[in-house]
Design brief:
five-stranded antiparallel beta sheet, 10 strands, alpha+beta, 254 residues, 6 helices, 22% strand
């Protein structure tokens, strides 16, 4: 009788973590920045149909990087959870912290399970309050870890390089225009050289506490982005990625 193949738990977890990190690193970065009136989400996303930043509930937004089909399943689950909790109890009982905890349990269970591959995703869950001090921003990793971020946060792609740029230039309590300009410049920054990301390749959304309606989530149109970003010189498009994790493969015709 042959000896069963054995892999230590430590090695198994390391291999699963390396697999997930490799998939996430192929996706384009997402930046979240707290500004005077709320939370700003900026991503380089040429697709006009497949969103990486979305609304979850009245004051809560969701952003993700990695495998589109995987984080889209998580987004839909979050919307359903928020709707059921708000309907069964009260809309005030739906919180960013509660959704972050639910996502953490799901991602942690999937990562620890040996029956399926880990999700190649990282998530932001943002919630705004009545004052800047009440704003919340959570970052969730592929293994279910939750970090309470302050000021700004970056995930996916060249996150370390982008975060380093933001660390030097982020200003607390900045206006939307200044926060957007810094976030977009950070996404275009690299160790080799800087590039200007075309407006049509940007996906930008905000949680804006100054909106009068209960739903505080809003997407910024290309026309408004042009006005906010001003003259940035000639646009240089990003090179095509060999295996972009953010866009699902196109299925052949049925």
């Amino acid at each position: 009788m042959s000896t069963p193949y054995y892999v230590s738990p430590e090695q198994l977890m390391k291999d699963r973590a390396d697999f997930a990190r490799k998939g996430i690193s192929r996706g384009r970065s997402v930046v979240a920045v707290q500004y005077a009136d709320g939370v700003l989400f900026v991503s380089e996303n040429p697709s006009q149909a497949l969103h990486k930043v979305s609304e979850i509930y009245d004051r809560i937004a969701f952003a993700a990087v990695g495998r589109y089909n995987e984080f889209e399943n998580l987004r839909i689950a979050g919307v359903r959870l928020a709707d059921m909790r708000g309907y069964a109890y009260d809309r005030r009982d739906v919180t960013g912290r509660g959704l972050a905890n639910a996502y953490a349990q799901t991602l942690g269970t999937i990562f620890s399970s040996g029956g399926e591959k880990p999700y190649e995703v990282e998530l932001f869950v943002g919630e705004i309050g009545d004052a800047p001090a009440d704003d919340q921003l959570y970052r969730l990793t592929y293994d279910g870890q939750v970090a309470d971020e302050h000021g700004y946060a970056v995930m996916g792609g060249a996150a370390d390089v982008v975060a380093g740029y933001l660390k030097e230039r982020y200003a607390e309590g900045a206006a939307l225009e200044a926060a957007l300009q810094v976030a977009v410049a950070a996404l275009g920054h690299s160790e080799a050289d800087d590039r200007i990301i075309p407006v049509e390749d940007l996906e930008v959304a905000v949680l804006d506490r100054t909106r009068t309606q209960p739903r505080k989530f809003s997407r910024l149109s290309p026309a408004r982005l042009e006005a906010l970003l001003g003259d940035r010189g000639a646009a240089v498009s990003a090179p095509a990625e060999a295996d972009g994790s953010d866009e699902p493969p196109v299925a052949p015709p049925a």
